[in-house]
Amino acid sequence: MQSNWKHNLYVLWFGNFMTGMGFSMTMPFMPLFVKSLGHFDTWTLNILSGVAFSITFLAKAIISPYWGKLADQYGRKLMCLRSSLGMTITITACGFVPGVGSLIVLRAIQGLFSGYINNANAIVAASAPMEVNGKAMGTLATGNVVGTLLGPLIGGVLAEAYGYRTSFYVVGAMMAVVFFVTLFFVHEEFTPIKREEMMPMKQVFHEMKYPKLIWGLFITTLVIQAANMSVTPILSLLVSDLLHHGGRVALVSGIISSLPGIVTLFTAPFLGSLSDKYGPEKILTGGLILAVMTFSAMSFVTNVYQLGVWRAVLGISDAALLPAVQSLMVGYVPKQAFGRIFSCNQSFQAMGSVVGPMLGSVVASIFAYQNVFMMTAIMEIFNFIFLFPIAKAIWQGKKQQKKVEA
């Protein structure tokens, strides 16, 4: 398995890229597609669009621990195949829906079948040598980032040229490609474990050196996702205000929205290497401090150029946080529990996708748009306060171990 890790990394990077693109391709026009499925007033349309968007993540949050248990019993490659095949069917079926009710049901089922990316992460994490694990996880993370970045652009072009339904057919075909590429080119050496022989989760946490760390990482994942998603409902409105309701709002909003992902793409492998060299716990705490500073600064922006600069800096923070979370899980979770722990982490990520936009919308409705960033900074501060003592204990433990070895 160690000898296959680079091969798996390249193939699963492609799978993550296609999955990330598939998830994001239909996002830009989802409200417009919902609108085309009936005659709704503005309030009803907003509610239905919100439900159609968030129900996938809600279903994912609920079901992920169950899939994680099966991953630890039967292997992570099988879960990647299950996920890609399920999404092939459900996303393609979305292109044939007669009404919004059918769309919401299929979007929920799509969430129930999700899990490709976290199982791909578990495969690479289990096989990559520890000395390069941070770089491997950082590189793998860029696949999802690039796909998520390109998805809205390609989906928008397809919808404009061929109609909304065509995008669903294309995404379904893409996920079919992911299924077959994973089936034939991902190699996982895994011995199935009988259900009665599986280590219970209570025992897994009992055997961990830093059990609180894992809960801290779950919370960090939720906060990262909630922070990134909190601005989604109001970003174009904020840009419009900063442009004084003139200029090319849609274009500028698209650029501002994509900046963190572009910066993460180029910096994640480098910061993953730093994680291998200096320790992921140090990179994680540094990323949280940078996130607090960045979101605080964004709450005082007065023009789109300032907003763009700080959104780019946010990409560095994300590039530090994402691989560090994965590397710490790899280092302090028993391998026989990888599937369950990575799937629980995906549940927290999905919860962040639901909580973030809701909080952002509420804060923006009560206060000014910039206050959304201050709210996010406060979330990051509490995250840092919870995680820092654990991270400090880890690097002090490493320092003590080096003294003993010397």
UniProtKB/TrEMBL annotation:
<feature type="transmembrane region" description="Helical">
    <location>
        <begin position="84"/>
        <end position="109"/>
    </location>
</feature>
<feature type="transmembrane region" description="Helical">
    <location>
        <begin position="283"/>
        <end position="302"/>
    </location>
</feature>
<feature type="domain" description="Major facilitator superfamily (MFS) profile">
    <location>
        <begin position="8"/>
        <end position="395"/>
    </location>
</feature>
<keyword id="KW-1003">Cell membrane</keyword>
<feature type="transmembrane region" description="Helical">
    <location>
        <begin position="43"/>
        <end position="63"/>
    </location>
</feature>
<feature type="transmembrane region" description="Helical">
    <location>
        <begin position="250"/>
        <end position="271"/>
    </location>
</feature>
<keyword id="KW-0472">Membrane</keyword>
<feature type="transmembrane region" description="Helical">
    <location>
        <begin position="375"/>
        <end position="395"/>
    </location>
</feature>
<feature type="transmembrane region" description="Helical">
    <location>
        <begin position="213"/>
        <end position="238"/>
    </location>
</feature>
<dbReference type="InterPro" id="IPR036259">
    <property type="entry name" value="MFS_trans_sf"/>
</dbReference>
<protein>
    <submittedName>
        <fullName>Multidrug efflux MFS transporter</fullName>
    </submittedName>
</protein>
<dbReference type="GO" id="GO:0022857">
    <property type="term" value="F:transmembrane transporter activity"/>
</dbReference>
<keyword id="KW-1133">Transmembrane helix</keyword>
<feature type="transmembrane region" description="Helical">
    <location>
        <begin position="9"/>
        <end position="31"/>
    </location>
</feature>
<keyword id="KW-0812">Transmembrane</keyword>
<dbReference type="GO" id="GO:0005886">
    <property type="term" value="C:plasma membrane"/>
</dbReference>
<keyword id="KW-0813">Transport</keyword>
<dbReference type="Pfam" id="PF07690">
    <property type="entry name" value="MFS_1"/>
</dbReference>
<dbReference type="InterPro" id="IPR001958">
    <property type="entry name" value="Tet-R_TetA/multi-R_MdtG-like"/>
</dbReference>
<dbReference type="InterPro" id="IPR011701">
    <property type="entry name" value="MFS"/>
</dbReference>
<dbReference type="InterPro" id="IPR020846">
    <property type="entry name" value="MFS_dom"/>
</dbReference>
<feature type="transmembrane region" description="Helical">
    <location>
        <begin position="167"/>
        <end position="186"/>
    </location>
</feature>
<feature type="transmembrane region" description="Helical">
    <location>
        <begin position="350"/>
        <end position="369"/>
    </location>
</feature>
